[in-house]
Amino acid sequence: MVASTSASLCLDSRKFRRYELPAPGAPSHRDGARVGLERPLPRKVGIEASAQLRGKMATAGGGTVADPGSRSLLRLLSFCVLLAGLCEGNSVERKIYIPLNKTAPCVRLLNATHQIGCQSSISGDTGVIHVVEKKEDLQWVLTDGPNPPYVVLLEGTLFTRDVMEKLKGRSGRISGLAVSLAKPSPASGFSPSVQCPNDGFGIYSSSYGAQFAHCRAFQWNTVGDGLAYEDFSFPIFLLEDENETNVIKQCYRDHNLSPNGSAPAFPLCAMQLFSHMHAVVSTVTCMRRSLIQSSFSINPEIVCDPLSDYNVWSVLKPINTSGTLAPDDRVVVAATRLDSRSFFWNVAPGAESAVASFVAQLAAAEALQKAPDVATLARNVLFVFFQGETFDYIGSSRMVYDMENGKFPVQLENIDSFVELGQVALRNSLELWMHTDPMSQKNDTVLKQVEALLSTLEKSGAGVPTVVLRRLNQSQPLPPSSLQRFLRARNVSGVVLADHSNSFHNLYYQSIYDTAENINVTYPEGQSPEEDLNFVTDTAKALAGVATVLARALYQLAGGTSFSDTIQADPHTVTRLLYGFLVRANNSWFQSILRPDLRSYLGDGPLQHYIAVSSPTNATYVVQYALANLTGTVIDLTREQCQDPSQVPTEDKDLYEYAWVQGPLSANETDRLPRCVRSTVRLARALSPAFELKQWGSTEYSTWTESRWKDIRARIFLIASKELEFITLIVGFGILVFSLIVTYCINAKADVLFITPREPGSVSY
């Protein structure tokens, strides 16, 4: 009976193997990552192991041949090993389950008062798969289906607040959710963010611009449904690979889809999702628990971590970073954000919400650095790329905090003017709108400074055909922007440039669909990756125009007059940056600008722009080194000197940063020509001051944390009926009892069954 049961197990597992994913090496639709199961061990492994075991047993005891009882035991062991060989030496688990290798989970985030996101139970949540391709299919999982709980495979177009509220209301019948990507992106738009981003942490409040507080004037993100800020009691995963989605659907059609709406017969195709989160309630609770653990435990279990990374910054003219600027030194700030997010962890393409703006600023920094008289300008220019702005202005609030406390070389009083790039992809028109703060302009001095700033921008854009600068009514508030955090601390003459006059044009703000296609970054078919890298798209030309306007304006704001019209951003730089950040990070140009030890940070797909908790993130490193290579100077230093410039009397590490990068390919295109790049590019901590001050319930600073977890994975398998599971349990228990009885009997009669061979004695003749 045992043999037949084991054989049937092997046969059943072979039957299920037709749902295996493509073999290693098969391309993924997203970034070419490998998907698939490990290859099973060949049958001969089990047979050879059996032969070796027999050999060892035969020679045991100094060559003495085993007695009949031992030979019976030997046969039993050999049979077990052979049985394992028949099952191809593979583990039972790998025969039962198919792991899903290209998924992204929804994880738990916390702030001072709430928790948002998703989680599973500690042992994972399991349910019968039901595919929902239209709203009518929900009826089966909500009320009609006879085999709850269900894991819903939801088409991307149905991943809306309305559908999610229905599923959330029947959590007893829903054990999880797997979401497939919609292709093409939903035409009506999709944004899981809120309609008033970063509400409560900007400049407008009941005491300052109350008429603009909480987006009373109008909602900036009109398509936002706030789904990413809800709390779900079941796990939700994104299926990133189309092949895996098709495997799940095929398993569903074969086992779970019955004719005429009748109940399907067992076995049924099921899914198990693991995403148990350690933190609960709020940042205050989880940070307090972590602190207690750290204080009283030898091996503390930290349950959450603050969202943090690094801001990237550089100056046009080098400054001594060991001190601070004199009060009369004036600096023009050019700022933008680096980060974005979506509903799912570390899936944040951010094409329009972040990438387009920081790519334009990188190109502007390169163009401005090439101006002949930058060293003699009356004012310096500070380029800042803020991290964590999506989560209540983490990066900008930390920089303002450091400036106020003398922890940053530039102080708030050194800021002469502030120019920020918002969403500037120019998808719908050539118009670039200049947003200012109406409240600060009630001060006549600030009003005059803002007027001069707007005039300079208009003058800078006059000779750029791809951009048209537009003014707005002075009674209109600022959109969500880093400038708001600086205005909270000091009246600064500032402007935010954006491609929208009021509500965002971006229909996929902070969503999984804010990709290269959203800003029309496409390439002709049939081109090689290297040709795509250097192909100048229309979007690249438009963003080069934005970069040119910014560079010329910064030049004039810094006091330049002679070469403004000659400053021109390079469309080739823009197109390479767009390709690297949005299409394929592992390209020849990105490889050439990075340190050798950072090569592995570049994957075959786009970079993601979620701030995370382990920093610097891949995107931060790439922006840092892109800015260094675009604005820095290649100097003749050896690798050792570049890594320790204090050895060189003519170099000053207080003024410059030094980076040993891989460099371009040599003439034979096999080796690289490494070099030392000297620049003013540095990193500054982007951790909310709330955590430095241990004010975890702060309403002044961001308090976002991310829960820790132990295991995140998803897998599918065939599940038996409850009756069969019960029968299997009883049979297994019976076999256990029987084996115990047999073992007891054998042990009791061991002196009879197993006769010890007599020691050979001395023979006398």
Secondary-structure-based class equals: alpha/beta
CA-atom Rg in angstroms: 32 Å
From the N-terminal CA to the C-terminal CA, the straight-line distance is 56 Å
- Share of helical residues: 25-40%
User: What portion of residues belong to β-strands?
Assistant: 15-25%
Please tally the β strands and state the result.
Answer: 23
Number of DSSP helices? 21
Mean pLDDT: 88
Strand count, sense and barrel status of the largest sheet are:
8 strands, mixed
Task: Name the strands of the widest sheet in spatial order.
Answer: 1-23-9-5-6-7-8-2
Q: What spatial form do the alpha-carbon principal axes imply?
A: globular
Comma- or semicolon-separated keywords:
765 residues; Nicastrin; eight-stranded mixed sheet; 33% helix; disordered N terminus; single chain; alpha/beta; 21 helices; globular
How is this structure best described in words?
The strands form four sheets. An eight-stranded mixed β-sheet has the order 1-23-9-5-6-7-8-2. An eight-stranded mixed β-sheet has the order 16-15-17-14-12-13-11-21. The chain has a four-stranded antiparallel β-sheet with strand order 4-3-22-10, covered by helices on one side. It has 21 helices and 23 strands. The protein starts with a helix and ends in a 12-residue tail after the last helix. Helix content is 33%, strand content 16%.
Write a short abstract of this structure:
This protein is α/β, with parallel strands linked by helices and 765 residues long.
